[in-house]
From TrEMBL:
Family matches, as InterPro entries: TPR-like_helical_dom_sf, TPR_rpt, Ycf3
Spans of repeat TPR: 127-160
Keyword list, A-Z: Repeat, Signal, TPR repeat
Listed Pfam families: TPR_19
Signal peptide range: 1-26
UniProt protein name: Tetratricopeptide repeat protein
Gene3D superfamilies according to UniProt: Tetratricopeptide repeat domain
Amino acid sequence: MKIRNTYTLKVTLLIILCSHILSSYGQDMKAGFAMLESGQFQSAEKFFGKTLTDYPDNKTAKLCFGRATGLSGNTDAAIQIFEELLQEYPGDMEVRLNLAEAYLWKKDGKSAVVDYLSIIKQDSTLFAAQLGLANSYSMTQNYGSAYATIQTAIDLDPNNQQAALSRKYITLGLANELASRKHLYDSALTLVDKNLKYNPKDQESLQLKATIYLIAGEFESSDDIYLQLSDTLASIKGQSLTAHLLEDNELALNLADSLVSMASIQKDTSKIMDAHLHYVTALLWNEKISIAGSYLDSLSNLFPFSPEMIATQAQIAMYGADFKKGSKKYDDYLALMPKSFGGNLGKADAMHALGLDNIAYQYAFRTLTYYPGQKDAANFIERLNAQHSPQAYAGYVYTYSSDGSVSTGYQLEGKISLSPRWSTAINYQQKHYGSKIAESGESYIESTGLSLTHQLNATIKLQAAYGVSKLQLSDTMRADYRSRLNLSAQLLISKSQSMTIGYFSEIQDFNQALIQQKLKVSNFVIKNSFFWKESNLGWYSELYRSYFSDGNTKNLLFTSLYKNLTKKPAIKAGINYTIMNFSENKPEQYYSPKLYNQMELFTGLMYNKLPVDLSWDLAGGFQMVDGMTQPTWRTKLALSKKIGRLNTEVSGAYSSISSSQYNGFSHLELRGQLTYRLSDKPIFFKRIASSTISD
């Protein structure tokens, strides 16, 4: 909320001037005084200019001419007039007060503070000086000093209405600073309530109180305040916003529709336009993206161009996942409104969505430069920090198959971002194998690996990984070493489509029987994903061509069509289909059907309103293996909890679908994992924080 600075001391003007009027000119200048008093500054400038032609040495006429000149907008000329008067009348308190006030007219609060402090040092009982100093502090946004000084001014003149008005806006300024920059919400609300004690229906105080409740996340309290506003448009718009924040987007849209109807009877075009643009935003909250776009297009034919229309175009693009267009529109908007909060943070969000976090950081920092302490910008930077801070991972897994095979394993990994677009990770894992049925001894695999990831540009992300695995089949056999390679490129094709093209090699290590085959597989894969946001419909596919070290080959196509049904809790459902075939059927060695088909219906649930976050997947269907049909089902339940920088998760999964592993057996898997952020900030934070984007 922008707090207005008040600094013109018109109430005391005539008192100061009249005491210095020469009696011989008193009648001649009454008309000029009246012009100054009523705000007719240009007329007053002409009047006193003419007076000075006749009486060039009249100090009062010079003062009034300087005031009229400055209040007409020519502040530099006014300052020059007062400086010349001060040379003529060194140390004159009246001239010094006018010169200090002229700096306020020029919006040069720093110079005004210097002059007023000099005056008060000489005489601290001057009401006009204390009031001027308070307003000067307010202009420089030093609201703490302004608040203390305005109290001193009021003590000198308790009934002065100009001081009371200044106290109101200074109090609002301090309250806004405490809430938005320092997040001291209770202290801010206490200050606003002091204003409301003097005037319980003061609209600006009520609006700021509603805003503080919004920033503090107390949306119901904010809604209660919006209901008290006499400005119907502000009241309805505020209620619509709180309805959205309380997750009732249908009500938010209905209120936005009422806002448009109420605004249509206004004569203020800007208010009408603001109501229409809020309605567009409410459409986006309800994911009516194409309707919002068409509605905005119709507005461009009815209303004159405004920067806010470009900002809304950017907003529509972002909701529609067209991040490239959103970024371009934010560029257009910032070219017109370089210090816009929504423009700078919106640009940061677009860059993050495109993977260009180096630029996202800079726009977020610039947002905080213009709006120090702003909560949304600070939280955005914290999310980037959480993603790029050094992390350590530890995981444990236990697997039991229906053939009696048992495996246990653990994995350790460290990840570090070298820059917002470069990251690397190193991992180590061991996996031990045995059987509850056969006395075959224990085998294990020990692996190490190193990976490197690079966000090349807004459309291409590259990844490379290399590792070495040590296979130990028994204590008496010599260890066997195998290398692994992983190369992939993730491509952003359009706002609705992304694709991954890659190659990876692996060792078949699901159970002890597979390890003994020493099978190494080279896989070429294409993954393709479509998601149409407005319809919440997605289509995901994977295509594999695999070459086994024993000469066998495999083709596999997996495709899934799904729909997001609800947001909170997040529920989706869909259908999966898999077709797979091997060139050679080797059932005695590993699961390798000539033809495999599998179809299933699935649903997924994510819920975060419990003490722990819950994720549950359930699927059922049937599979046809070389002409034989059988039912299948699978399920997975995961519980996770974040405690400071530590993320914990435990999960359990069961599957009877033979395609999920090469051995063809159903299996149970239990897993636990910990992820810990080693620091609050990434290693490159200081470097990127020092870089800036020029306006």
